[in-house]
User: Which sequence fits this backbone?
């Protein structure tokens, strides 16, 4: 089994029955079809996500604070197709539910899913509703997406610890499901025990208002007092900028290598063309004047040394 999983198509190594095409045109067509298929799949997933979000948003906006609203929140957090929650958090029924302590904890839980991570939920678990299996999996996948926004290379050991997962197989299954859900794209390298991130889904951003009680964290960044850092967008944007810069550099190198390869190919082709043209010219010359060509061959057969070795009789015969 190969050490590298291609999570764009979830393949466990190369297919031994698949033959590689020797034609560069077929390769380009294959890559183009693959890119088009990925685009179609992303658009389809995006539309499904939007439909589910609109579905829950419509129901929640038409609800009143109470048991029915709590049930909608629980269903929403269990749904595998909804990963952004800012609009729902700002809906009037959710804001009004904050007045009731028994209902306010569900809005706080929704904030964890919007901005937070699994470890932050664990820190506040005693004061928040319990999660079912689907909700736990979803929050852990969102945590991986948040970690992917900070680094392109994530060690398995770090994810196993932060997500409180006991086996590598369970971790890989969680990430593969996140890939299928369009939370991120990347590769699992079993040999190096790392996740290589290509891209990731942006999460909700928590806002700060002027009248809120703020404090500085250890890095000199503002955060809501007693809460998590709410200006992480700055770091995320910087990481995104660095990642984009790295991708651009790789593309420049790739384009330059293609140009160099094309130039070498043109030179080689020109050399072959020159050789073919010279051969054709020689062939045409021999066809149009065979006697001259024969005399030229005979002349080449007799070297200057041969003239000195000729006997006088042979020389006279030659003159005659």
Assistant:
């Amino acid at each position: 089994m190969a050490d590298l999983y291609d999570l764009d198509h979830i393949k466990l190594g190369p297919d031994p029955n698949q033959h590689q095409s020797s034609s560069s045109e077929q390769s380009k067509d294959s890559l183009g079809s693959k890119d088009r298929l990925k685009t179609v799949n992303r658009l389809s997933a995006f539309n499904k996500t939007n439909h589910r979000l609109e579905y829950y948003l419509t129901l929640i906006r038409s609800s009143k604070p109470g048991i029915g609203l709590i049930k909608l929140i629980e269903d929403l957090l269990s749904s595998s197709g909804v990963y952004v929650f800012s609009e729902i958090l700002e809906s009037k029924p959710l804001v009004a539910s904050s007045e009731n302590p028994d209902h306010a904890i569900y809005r706080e839980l929704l904030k964890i899913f919007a901005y937070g991570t699994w470890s932050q939920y664990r820190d506040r678990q005693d004061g928040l509703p319990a999660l079912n299996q689907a909700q736990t999996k979803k929050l852990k996948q969102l945590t991986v997406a948040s970690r992917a926004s900070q680094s392109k290379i994530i060690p398995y050991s770090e994810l196993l610890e932060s997500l409180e997962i006991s086996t590598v197989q369970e971790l890989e299954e969680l990430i593969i499901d996140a890939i299928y859900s369009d939370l991120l794209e990347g590769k699992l390298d079993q040999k190096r025990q790392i996740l290589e991130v290509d891209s990731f889904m942006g999460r909700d951003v928590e806002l700060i208002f002027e009248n809120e009680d703020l404090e500085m964290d250890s890095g000199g960044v503002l955060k809501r007092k007693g809460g998590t850092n709410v200006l992480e967008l700055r770091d995320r944007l910087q990481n995104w900028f660095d990642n984009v810069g790295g991708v651009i550099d790789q593309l420049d190198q790739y384009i330059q290598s293609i140009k160099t390869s094309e130039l070498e190919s043109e030179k080689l082709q020109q050399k072959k063309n020159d050789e073919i043209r010279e051969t054709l010219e020689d062939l045409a010359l021999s066809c149009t004047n065979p006697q001259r060509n024969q005399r030229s061959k005979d002349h080449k057969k007799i070297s200057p040394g041969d003239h000195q070795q000729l006997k006088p009789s042979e020389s006279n015969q030659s003159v005659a």
